[in-house]
Amino acid sequence: MQLRNIVLSITALGLVGVASTASADTWRFGLEETEGSVQYGYAEEFKKLIEEKSDGDITVELLPYGKWGSSYSALYDAIQSGAIPLGFGSGFLGGTVPESQLMSLNFVMPNDQLETAEILNSDDFLKSDAWQDSFRERGLVPLATLPEGYQVWTANKEVRTPEDMDNLQIRVMDNSLLRSTYEAYGASPITIAYGELYSALQQGQAEGNIQPVFAHENMGFYEVQDYMIFADQSQFIANFIGNEEWYDDLSDDQREMLESTLDEMVQKGHDIQTQFNSERLETIKEKSDINIVHLDENERDAFRKLAEPVRQTYVDMVGERGQKALDIVLDHVNQSGDKAE
């Protein structure tokens, strides 16, 4: 009986550590991607800054894909419960926060990728009632946004027109808006777990794929596809989110430290993704004979016209908050004078 009580006490202590309250020394940070990814590079720099600014009082524990499990919904559930108070959420987050699918809209963000990062991390957007309420209603807080580079198509045939994409079984994240977008392009979108995607492409269960360059290289997807197509239709964008209760319980000093770090990470995150994607593209070119295709403006316009009605699909899906958030982004893009993607 004494041994059982000791075991129960140890287990309880462990669960307290996992819950990670605001006063705890360890901030657990769940990533959707593996080591060697943009998210991991961002998280390493975030960890360095927080630990330096806190004089070592806070340790940031990085939990890349696989360390917390392999189902993205499990990661989001852990953030909502506070078991992992910090994490990234991208396309799959739409099942938890439908409004977050804004980041999946094609031909909305500016061509300048740094400008995209600045708009999405601006107080006008990030701290707007529409965006904050969308997450807080689900026990989450949007802390920052990380654009990870342009989404690039791969396939075993050249794709330059919507006709080329007709009935193409292209893998998309489990996100209803992405499915609507690629159905508008004429494709037949399918969802396959990230960890199973390589074999699915290899065996022909999926005919195409959508990822930023670094992911194509990191996961070796380019090895089992013949064409890599740059349409510059959208950037892959991750939301950096926190547990609402954890965030609200931070001290003023902790919150100020977090905010100043996130401000620094806008430029650092852009630099990380730029370097990763540039270097990884060179690696792909060196290691394979995959055909690289860049669509011209006329070819992109054909896809743009099909994508524009999906904006209304998004608003119909999520309602007034989504419309307000989208309007903020479009207003900033129009003010900048930079043509949307």
TrEMBL record:
Lineage, opening ranks: Bacteria, Pseudomonadati, Pseudomonadota, Gammaproteobacteria, Oceanospirillales
GO terms for biological process, alphabetical: transmembrane transport
Protein's UniProt name: TRAP transporter substrate-binding protein DctP
Name of the encoding gene: dctP
Keyword field: Signal, Transport
PANTHER family named among the record's database cross-references: C4-DICARBOXYLATE-BINDING PROTEIN DCTB, PTHR33376
NCBIfam families per record: TRAP_S1
TM stretches of this protein: none
InterPro entries: DctP_fam, TRAP_DctP_sf
Membership in a protein family: Belongs to the bacterial solute-binding protein 7 family.
Keyword Signal carried by entry: yes
Signal peptide annotation: 1-24
Pfam families: DctP
